[in-house]
Write a structure and sequence with these properties.
The protein contains 22 helices and twelve strands. With about 650 residues, the protein is of the alpha/beta class.
Amino acid sequence: MTTSKPSKNKVKKLLNLVFMHCNKISFLLYLAGVGWFCALMDPNFNGRCYFSENALLPGLTDSYFYDAGESINNYNRRIYVTKQSQSRMNRISEILQENDFEFYEQSFNFKNKMFNNPENEFVNGTNVYAFIRARRASSTDSIIINIPIPRKEENLKNYAAGKVIALAKQMKNQVYWAKDVIILFSEHGTNGANAWISSYNGHNFQQDMFSYQPLQSRAGSLQAGVVLEFMNITANLINLKVEGLNGQLPNLDLFNLAVKLCRHERAHVTVNNMLSPTGGRDQLDNWKKYFETAWRMMKFQFVGRPTGNHGVFLKHKVETLTLEGKRDNRYAKIDLVKSGRVIEGMCRSLNNLMERLHQSFFFYLLPSTDRYISIGVYMPPLGLILAAPLLQVLCMHFADLFKSSSDDDKDHGDVANKDESCKEDVAEEGDEKPATPVEVTKVLPKLKLYDVDNFIGVWTEVATVLTFCFFNGIIVHYVPEIISRFNLSSLFYFDSKFLFLFLILAAHIVAVTMGTSRRFKNATSCKRAHECGAIFLVVSLGIVAVVNYSFGMLLSIFVVPPILLVGGTRVSTSRNVKRFAAGVFMLIAPLSIICFICLYLNNGGFSITGLADIVTDIYENDRLNGVWTYRFATLIYFPFWLKLFLISVLNIDATSS
């Protein structure tokens, strides 16, 4: 018993210290998390890329794609120059027919714009796909090569089309292929690829925004593939694009395979247009390059939109990335034949696989082409950042209980000391009569009856505020549906995208105005509402970060400081302090974040048109491509932000506390 008292006192002193300096410790946790994350860009804290799947055997096979330069130029000339009266897809079909390929066509249509489309017009497109059947095995597995074909109106040319046709003509006569090879020429960017892969997997349905024909033939199960974008005849760099839908990434082995084969052909390779640092002595300069490369990757993942057609295939669990030819006269030229050997090498390596790519990482960050940061390394910094508001909430919740417990212990100690002093006085007087025992109610801690009515009243208020905030989030989410259902743009003679922005702004103003018109009945209700809002928002950011780390991390870095500030000033009685906290919290409102994005994209410039375009683009990508940024912003982030903002400005009725 004597040894437990000192340890118990030490724990109480430590808890007392944590409660006294809770806000300072929370801010230190936040800064430690951000600093730890920045330190991960240094090579001493991340890993070197390596192959987990030994069956790939990159670069160990002989390449046969050498004397095809004349054929490539001829095919590209026929596709993009001659017979201008025909569409490019028809010219590709003619070339495939002349070379005896098994090919088919697929028609599809989609709504290119959700707004400013009063006649409900659809955009039509065509996909052309060809099969190279495996001679050594049945059609069990397949590899896909996708070539996005720009429309004639776009005034762009993808010269990878001729290269792939020449390569496919050679592959058709080779006998060592154990997997089917599918050549897909698609239109309208991700829409054409989405129509083809959805129909290939048997999703033959029609939506109000998207419809397509079923495929006439199929091959084996799609295992992996590559998307080619070479908008120039010659390139100096091969840029790898890996960011898919909602931050999804291909297996790291596929990325390592592309890097290995590019270097095997003596081609400079980049990721997000960033070369790997040369390893100079200036460590700070190298760290800046590593950080910039990772930042570009996180920026694309945060947006949620795929950086190429590979994002559509990743959505259907087909490991794919995009190879993009870039011009930079500082480096040697890479002709279409050399880049074709890279594609041939990738197909040969994927042909060796007996199963899908699964051994390497699916969640990672790339500070360079030869370094990676795995999920087990980058999650602890995020944990520190999210632990900061959780610690503040815990201190807020248990502060009163800890204080009352300390007071009870103090009273109990005073009573015990008084009892001991009485016994000593009796012993000194030599009186054998025992001392009058101290009353039990004075020794034991005071037992308090649980106030059920108060408990129900507090959590009823919390539930009411939470319901109000979620109801406003649902209204904001369905604003576009209201505009299209009731045709409000023609009713108010207003552009649809500006009406969309105006209604979202009006929803913000109405929600804040209605929320601040009421008061909490007591301080406990306000405290519990703040605790629930902070915990739910932090948990939501943590769950999102597991799927899309860049989205969760960047949003946490931006959102957590205002949450800590509001929590630190909650006990303040100064109106100016509360107004300052509410003003800072307005900086992380959904519309405020969109304004910051608009400023960033326009290099500091701001316009209402640009803001409306960003809001409209976020919604259209939600409906067309399944990017859940709009759903997260309206149904999760906006309600919890509104709840915390209202708590930061609401006045508490002190008479009923």
